[in-house]
Amino acid sequence: VNLFRLYGANSSATSMHISGAARNKPGYALISFYGCSENYGANECDYKTQWFNNKIVVVELKANPTIYNLAHMHYQDAGYFSEPQATVNPSFSKILFSSSWESSSETAIHDYLIGLPASALPNP
Predict the structure, then answer these.
(1) Are 55 and 72 in contact (CB under 8 A)?
(2) Tens of pLDDT along 47-91?
(3) CA distance to 27, 32, 50, 81, 88, per residue, from 84 (Å)
(4) Model-level pTM?
């Protein structure tokens, strides 16, 4: 099942990290998006071009999936270790991610935890 196009209008491209670690909540994946650019890397993305840039979302693993927007990461490239690769626990009740929070300093990276109630995602 194709979930997202990596390449969009205006010669845009984005990076994503997919976490499928929620083995006790099958049918969903956690995706964090970052590093979007347009015009073959010459410009940052306009959010109208790729609405999911800099976000963490939950995606149903089916055609025409429901997408749940969880967080905006405020990513700013501060090198490899600033890439906000979100992950989820087995029950999909906790999501952990890092963010430079719009800083370009590698020492300004912090971790964030999102808690989801068990009823937040229906059983697919």
Answers:
(1) yes
(2) 776 788 889 999 999 888 899 999 998 877 888 888 888 999 999
(3) 23, 7, 17, 8, 13
(4) 0.86
Three-state SS sequence of 69-81: EEEECCCCCCCHH
Kindly state the tokens that stand for 96.
Answer: 């952990």
Q: In this structure, how many other beta carbons lie within 10 angstroms of the beta carbon of residue 50?
A: 24
Amino acid symbol at 123:
N
Instruction: Look at the block and give the residue holding tokens 């905006």.
Output: 72
Q: Which two tokens stand for residue 121?
A: 């995602």
For residue 97, the cross-strand partners are: 112
* Residue whose structure tokens are 């995602």: 121
**Residue found under tokens 């890439």:** 83
